[in-house]
TrEMBL record, chain A:
Major localization listed first in the record, in broad terms: membrane
CDD domains: TM_PBP2
Protein location: Cell membrane
SUPFAM superfamilies documented for this protein: MetI-like (SSF161098)
Gene3D superfamilies: MetI-like
GO biological process, one term: transmembrane transport
Keyword terms: Membrane, Transmembrane, Transmembrane helix, Transport
Family according to the record: Belongs to the binding-protein-dependent transport system permease family.
Gene Ontology cellular-component terms listed: plasma membrane
Transmembrane recorded as keyword: yes
Protein name as annotated: ABC transporter permease subunit
Membrane topology: Multi-pass membrane protein
TrEMBL record, chain B:
Stored InterPro entries: MetI-like, MetI-like_sf
GO cellular component terms, A-Z: plasma membrane
Organism: Zhongshania marina
Keyword Transmembrane helix: yes
Membrane topology designation: Multi-pass membrane protein
Annotated protein name in UniProt: Peptide ABC transporter permease
Length: 348, 343
């Protein structure tokens, strides 16, 4: 593929880089996303590295280690936080814990206080805990991973269905086009959130079912766009020329029409990502999203609004969402400018 | 063009049937419907009742089950019960709520004033704020006003309105205690004087209205600004400048009208908000409008109400879309829908 040598694409890429805000936002978001895939290294109740009597262990990605392995008197899994304290005196033994030494599903109840616990550096709950004593910071990180993976997968499904059906509608036209036009008309008039709530209340979805339900109701906008784009391309001379040379239907679609129309889809990607994250969080907030105990931002928001005195719950989720969605919006703005530079002028 | 709109109106019928049939089918195959609810209720009631009656059986007999199913219309196949439901809807009978036993239409009608209050205020405020602001931002592009308001607009653009609502309620109602924690009016609303009543409604309405506004505010302002800037560089503006009009005059007389066209397209979608409200914002602020009713109905599996709200909101949505197009056709004589010759 010579997409990257294409002078138009090159120019767009240069314009994208020129808008510094969008370019840096893209990098930050990419780094955050990659970090979230290694969330176990940042928030976990297992240690990253344990060196015990000169021997190295990596408990996160290795086997489960019991207390006996470290000369303790129990055979269930080691509590690495206690291990760290007990090993601090011993020579050539040490424990490196993640920055947040709690797993997102672990309840840590502090004696003499009811959860949610306020943020404190002493207990190492930097953002406090939720109503069942789970660490908020850990749940935020894992919740971000859920949200971003969910919205990227949703984007993938929506776009592949949209591109496939939209392209066929534009290329074949006729009865196929008419039939799907009606379907899209029905689909796009469905009150999206309400129907998803009804469906989700009925079948209590898991990750994949929820993804499927959202994709089932969300594929239409891309389809409509692709249909128009294909229609425009089909009428152009180069397609006629390809036909005259005897190119088959699939060849015209895949070699000529798709490369010319798909690139513009990039401008919609940031908005789809943002809407994926916000609708998943909204569903979780209303209680129709992912089942507990999956870490999710919506569920934290729900706890926060039910316990308004625990301001750190709402505060941390809202700040996290603001940061992520602002980054996405900056990227979207930069991509749009790269595709359609607005040269502003007026007459006086 | 009349033909085009007649066709659009006729298309409402299959679309409406499509939506309702889809949801109707879903509610049918779902476990935990009203019958199961009633059974558990009777079982629980049976247990407490059995303290008094030694032979108090908790379960229902088959006969009673049949009767219940007939009462809710669950005894017939799905398509025929859908036909019966549709026929009733056409006679403006949405059935009875399985939870309250009242007619669905009465329950929904009770909530209308609240949703209309918020919908109308949002609509008026959005246009009253966004059009002048977008105008100022477009005319003085790059000025201090433009860059400062851009920051606010961008925040409202990036964040969904429910997140803004949650942030507002936890800060201003939960933490600083400046506004009430939700609801439409206070409990002792009846005791207030007329002035007190107005003040009460106002103090309850401030936070939800900001949240509602945040949703449409950014989009409308940006739309207004961008379309004004497009028009400012148009040829007819050069002509206007050439014949000696001042800048503000040429904007007022020529560019302004043309830049209102895209804003008019958003008018129709606001109509459905007018009555439908937002599930999320009404849930967050505990406002007893149609959105909250729909949310509770889903949780309680009160399907007649769920279907009733679906009927109303999808009709509004369909009508709103057509209304948008009519608005566009009214403000922009260049636009011809339907594409036919001279249509």
């Amino acid at each position: 593929m010579n997409v990257f040598k294409n002078p138009v694409a090159k120019k767009r890429w240069q314009r994208f880089r020129q808008s510094r805000r969008g370019y840096y936002s893209a990098w930050i978001l990419l780094v955050l996303t990659l970090c979230s895939f290694g969330a176990e290294l940042f928030a976990n109740n297992r240690a990253i590295v344990v060196v015990y009597q000169g021997q190295w262990h990596f408990p996160i990605y290795g086997d489960v280690l019991s207390g006996k392995d470290f000369g303790l008197d129990y055979s269930y899994e080691v509590n690495y936080r206690e291990l760290k304290a007990s090993l601090s005196e011993e020579p050539n033994s040490w424990v490196l814990m993640p920055a947040i030494p709690f797993s997102p599903l672990e309840t840590d109840l502090i004696a003499g206080d009811f959860p949610p616990h306020a943020p404190s550096v002493d207990t190492r709950h930097y953002l406090g805990t939720d109503t069942s004593g789970r660490d908020v910071a850990a749940r935020l990180i894992y919740g971000f991973r859920t949200a971003i993976v969910f919205s990227l997968l949703l984007l993938f499904f929506n776009y592949s269905v949209g591109v496939a059906i939209g392209c066929m509608m534009g290329f074949w036209g006729g009865a196929f086009d008419l039939f799907f036009q009606r379907i899209i008309e029905i689909w796009s008039n469905i009150p999206f959130l309400y129907v998803i709530m009804i469906v989700a209340s009925v079948i209590t979805p898991g990750f994949w079912t929820l993804l499927f339900i959202m994709a089932f109701f969300g594929w239409t906008s891309m389809t409509w766009y692709m249909r128009t784009a294909t229609y425009k391309e089909v009428a152009r001379d180069y397609v006629m020329a390809a036909r005259a040379l005897g190119a088959s239907g699939p060849r015209i679609v895949f070699r000529h029409i798709l490369p010319n129309s798909v690139s513009t889809l990039v401008t919609f990607v940031p908005f789809s990502v943002a809407s994926g994250i916000t609708s998943l969080t909204a569903l979780d907030y209303l209680g129709f999203g992912l089942p507990p105990p999956v870490s999710s931002w919506g569920e934290l928001l729900k706890q926060g609004t039910e316990n308004l005195e625990a301001l750190w719950l709402v505060g941390s989720v809202v700040s996290a969402m603001t940061v992520i969605l602002m980054l996405v919006a900056y990227i979207g703005e930069a991509i749009r400018d790269a595709y359609d530079p607005r040269k502003f002028s007026f007459y006086e | 063009m009349t033909g085009y709109f007649v066709r659009r109106f006729l298309l409402i019928i299959p679309t409406f049937i499509g939506i309702t049939l889809l949801v109707f089918a879903i509610t049918r195959v779902v476990p935990g419907g009203p019958i199961e609810r009633m059974m558990t209720q009777i079982q629980l009631g049976g247990e407490t009742g059995s303290l008094h009656r030694s032979q108090g059986g908790g379960t229902l007999s088959d006969e009673q089950m049949e009767e219940l199913k007939r009462y809710y219309g669950f005894d017939k196949p799905m398509l025929s019960s859908y036909a019966i439901w549709l026929k009733k809807v056409l006679q403006f009978d949405l059935g009875h709520s399985t939870r309250y036993q009242d007619p669905v239409w009465e329950i929904i009608k009770e909530r209308f004033p609240i949703s209309i209050f918020y919908g109308l205020s949002t609509l008026v405020l959005t246009y009253a704020v966004c059009i002048p602001l977008g105008l100022a931002k477009g005319m003085y592009h790059g000025s201090t006003l433009d860059s400062w308001s851009s920051a606010v607009v961008f925040l409202g653009y990036a964040l969904p309105s429910y997140v803004i609502g949650i942030a507002l309620i936890s800060l201003f109602a939960g933490y600083w205690d400046m506004f009430p924690l939700g609801g439409f009016v206070s409990d002792n609303y009846e005791e207030f004087s007329a002035w007190g009543k107005a003040k009460d409604i106002f103090s309850h309405a401030v936070l939800p209205l900001i949240a509602y506004l945040a949703g449409s505010f950014a989009v409308t302002t940006l739309m207004m600004k961008n379309s004004l800037m497009d028009n400012l560089s148009a040829d007819y503006m050069r002509t206007a400048a050439a014949k000696g009009l001042s800048r503000s005059e040429s904007v007022r007389k020529h560019a302004l009208r043309n830049s209102l066209i895209p804003v008019a397209t958003s008018f129709g979608s606001n109509i459905s908000l007018l009555l439908g409200g937002s599930f999320l914002i009404e849930t967050i602020f505990n406002i007893d409008g149609i959105g909250l009713l729909g949310y509770e109905a889903i949780i309680e599996r009160d399907y007649p109400i769920v279907m009733g709200i679906l009927v109303i909101s999808s009709l509004l949505y369909l009508l709103g879309n057509i209304l948008s197009d009519i608005c566009v056709a009214l403000v922009d004589p260049r636009i011809r829908f339907g594409g036919g010759r001279g249509a």
